């Protein structure tokens, strides 16, 4: 069963240095969806060091739960975030949401 549009929760504004938790979830897809996050249409790798653009970010991305946690946000983390839920039957994407730091 193809995933439905996931529900994305993105904080609108986060003070510099604070923790920010972004959540993405849908529960109709079968098998269970895995989640990937995007900032300004760029994929956020679960292994953050692999992308030079995100080397200054300290975050943890859990593809199973759809949770993206920034441990200490900085100005560079500001942007439009969206999430895609994917399984064997297809994928669905939530609307981009702005997070300001």
UniProtKB/TrEMBL annotation:
Keyword list (alphabetical) reads: Cell junction, Cell membrane, Disulfide bond, Immunoglobulin domain, Membrane, Signal, Tight junction, Transmembrane, Transmembrane helix
Indicate where this protein resides in the cell. Cell junction, Tight junction; Cell membrane
Residues annotated as signal peptide: none
What SMART domains is this protein classified in?
IG (SM00409), IGc2 (SM00408)
List GO BP terms, alphabetically. cell migration
Entry membrane topology: Single-pass type I membrane protein
* Domain Ig-like: from-to ranges: 6-101
Family per record: Belongs to the immunoglobulin superfamily.
Q: Which protein, by its recorded name, is this?
A: JAM3 protein
High-level lineage: Eukaryota, Metazoa, Chordata, Craniata, Vertebrata
């Amino acid at each position: 069963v193809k995933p439905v549009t996931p529900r994305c929760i993105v904080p609108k504004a986060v003070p510099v240095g604070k923790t920010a938790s972004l959540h993405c979830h849908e529960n109709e897809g079968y098998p269970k969806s895995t989640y990937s996050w995007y900032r300004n249409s760029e994929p956020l790798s679960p292994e953050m060091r692999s992308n030079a653009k995100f080397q200054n970010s300290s975050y943890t991305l859990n593809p199973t739960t759809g949770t993206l946690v920034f441990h200490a946000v900085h100005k560079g983390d500001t942007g439009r975030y969206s999430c895609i839920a994917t399984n064997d039957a297809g994928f669905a994407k939530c609307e981009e949401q702005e997070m300001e730091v």
